[in-house]
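Slide 14.
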Amino acid sequence: MNVAKLLEKRRVDWTELERLCEAMELRGRTDSVSVHHRGAAGVARFSTLYRAACADLALADAYQLPPNTVTYLHRLVARAHNQLYRTTSASPSGWFRILFEDAPQRIFNDGCVRVATLVFFGLFALSMVMGASEDQFPEFAERFCGSAMLEATEESFQKPLAADPDSYTARAAFYIQHNTGIGLQCFAYGILLIPCLFTLAYNAVVLGATFGYMSREGVEGSENFFEFVTAHGPFELTAIALSAGAGMRIGMGLFNTRGLSRVDSVREAGRQAVPVMAASAVMFILAAFTEGFLSPSAAPYLVKVAWSIMSSGLITLYFVILGFPKQKSEGTSLVRTARYADLRETRIAAVGGSDAT
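Slide 15: predicted structure.
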């Protein structure tokens, strides 16, 4: 059987793929075509027909079939591709799904986020203990932070916290810019992995040593310092670790391509990092508003402690309860499998049919 006759027999599948495309364009799902195209079965059938149409197009191009057939297949493949890779509109429901479904589950299961969290909080806790133990680790905080910085910190907290309420908005804006700058720095360095880990470790050691130094006996302003940092600490520290983890995820996509081209691998890693970075941005904003309005206020210390406990509880709820692995829909898994397989086949075709993993 020649290629022309073979492709002619494939017209039944092309017509079916057209109907599925129409259903997805109108309703966003394949259910309306027939009872056999409901849920996961419809997604599986759509991906199978799409991949077969791609193969038919390659044959039509290779054997120089009539231009109308080639043009038809080009349009059909492009139409199906747009449905398979279509982007989600920036609707409130879409952002809600990203923040409260995709982000916590990605954070819970992402190895890069785990590494960043362990490095940051591990070094932070260790540096705080070493900075506070002046007898066992003399001048540890002074070496890492510098005597001038520690003296300036000590001096700035000698006066009681009672900032002018008129300056709260300006303080919140400053802290949003400052905190986001730290997060973006960790995120940007993440693509090279080592610079990201170094920046993350440096910030952890400096912050931990400062906390340890301010907890020493005889340090002036220590009570005011801890009263200031108690409220916003959980959100701010967690956001730094998350931003580093998101950057490292993109870096892993650059070096561990899993058989994809480097560009496609980084693009896929970027899609995985977006929910993590979105959660980090929200926490940076919450930390900045807390640091601008509640932390410097004359509110009772118990109020700030209560806010800190509530913040820590919400973070734990967000990561553990919302992030605990759930049974994902079979249709979503099939769509992701089809996308990954399509990217892999594009890579294989680019290197002449050999799977370069």
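Speaker note: Confidence is low (pLDDT under 50) at residues 328-335, 345-357.
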